[in-house]
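Model it.
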Amino acid sequence: MECLRMAVSPDHTQDDGVSKTTAIHLQSYLHGGTSSLLSALPTVLVFPVYKTIFRQQIHNTPVRQAVGQLYKEGPVKLYRGVVPPLLMRTLNGTLLFGFQDTLLRHLSLSAHNAIFTAALPALAGCGAGIAEAVVFTPFERVQNVLQNSKNDRHLPSLRSVLIRLKEQRISQGYYRAFLPITVRNALGSSLYFGLKGPVSAIVAGHGLSPMASSFVSGTMTSMAISLTLYPMSVLVANMQARVGGESKGVMACWRAMWKSRNHSVVLLYRGGTLVILRSCITWGITTAIYDRQVK
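Modeled.
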């Protein structure tokens, strides 16, 4: 029996080590999904605000006019399109944090100097942003189609939208605006994961608690990202809001949008204040919850 125990124990030790390592790797996915779900719950309450922003991005209308349009359409249509962002937000956090952590672990094995090591979180974040675009572009496409009131008559339900998009070529259907989404997500994720750690450390040096430092870090990082990449989100919304018709490329859509804004940066950022405020709060909460779970 002793010989058998000695023969079996190394394998059990190796299996336990593999199981423990796998569990540690999966924790980042679980933590990311949990933190994103908790921060996404207020989405239901602020969805009318989000829809007001969308109207400003698409139709270039003042906030008062956009609110008036939503009021006339009634409460039933007010929450049309709320399901995709809720689902996307939860799954997004699971993939973003989990995949970034997985990439970071693999990249760390090949790190040879301090400068390269310091850049690894941003590099892993870039990869996670690309994966995020591949997975979630269809969600964003469906959401933008549902929120465009001009589609209400010929695309009255989620099912009708899904069927119509399936009939289109993949580049014009579910993956419309895939290129700008990939650029936006890759840059945004790279900046987020590259900056949140150093910013949190600086803030913590001023005497704030770890959770407060994480919240401030997430808020400030999100503000910088939102200010930089907001025009990309406006471009994506304009490219994805319609189904069928003339299919313009990215540059053609950008020129048309820039012309519709009268070549004004101020008009291009119309609705941006609300987006940045919402993003700061959401990512502040997400960062604080995620860092708390990890620690």
